[in-house]
Amino acid sequence: MRRRELLLASLALLAVPWRAAAAAQPAVTMVLKSLKNPFFELMTAGARKHHAQHRAEYRLTLDGVPEESDVAGQVKIIETSIARRDQILIITPADSRAIIPALIKAIQSGMLVINLDNKLDDRALAGHGVNIPFVGPSNFNGARAVGDYVLRALKPRSKVGVIEGLPGSINAKARSDGYREAIANAGMSLAGIAWGDWERDKGRAAATALLRQTPDLAALLCGNDNMAIGAAQALSELKRDGKVLIGGYDNIPEMAALLAAKRIYATADQHPALQAEQAIRLGLESFNKRLTQSEMQSIVRTPVDLVKS
């Protein structure tokens, strides 16, 4: 009897750390890109709002890099998160391939890792044999909806230009692919593609180059609203306001006035605050169920809606 009591007491002691760990607040780190981009400001606001409503359930650290392409900066944030022994890492990657080794390191440290907004490269993930869940909309479908709407307002066989985001971003490619399909379906002509790297000034420069290359360009389909705003600036500088339709993507706050004035014809709202909430929810549910990385739900689709002028 004495031996049985000692055994039960030992088992109880072993269980205490597990119960304490299970009861502790998990630490969630969300790593964003381009903190100066209004889209990620909306995403940050969504994360903060969710945390304010669920403060007792988890601790939240929000961090990010100033430039869209700063992979090294994101890697440093991930390494800091690993050193803190955080439980959940959520990231909008600056590059869909280059960041993967750092994320694998985080998984190996025991963290649950979730991919938000800009999808990681599926082939690269398969090559590493790792499941990193994606939370976000179909960028292809959202861009195609914008393209379909803009191009319906044009004459047959009109010439259309595309301004794409960073070449290393899967969502940049998906949006351009959606625009290409809309152009093909409408029987329009793809006059050229230029890269604006998600930035306003570079979008303006890309639009200027396309407009000079094709003087009779009828529309510009842009991979995000920053570049669309830059394209609208280019039209004003070239005295072509109202003569070229512009499509954007993200529905950042500045777009409301531009859409109302019809300086931009349409954009897509992919609800960044909701994306952040869904990613945090997936991380917490997986943590509380004690799921491993491989057991996590592989994709959570969030909505994307057409916004018209």
TrEMBL record:
Task: State what protein this is by name.
Answer: Substrate-binding domain-containing protein
The family assignment reads: Belongs to the bacterial solute-binding protein 2 family.
Reading the lineage from the top rank, the first entry is Bacteria
| Gene3D superfamilies noted in UniProt | 3.40.50.2300
Note the InterPro entries from the entry.
Peripla_BP_I, SBP_2_dom
Record flagged with keyword Ubl conjugation:
no
Q: Which parts of the sequence belong to the Periplasmic binding protein domain?
A: 29-283
Sorted keywords for this record are:
Signal
**Where in the cell?**
Cell envelope
Q: In terms of one coarse class, where is the protein primarily found?
A: other
Q: What residue range is the signal peptide?
A: 1-22
Q: Does the keyword Ligase apply?
A: no
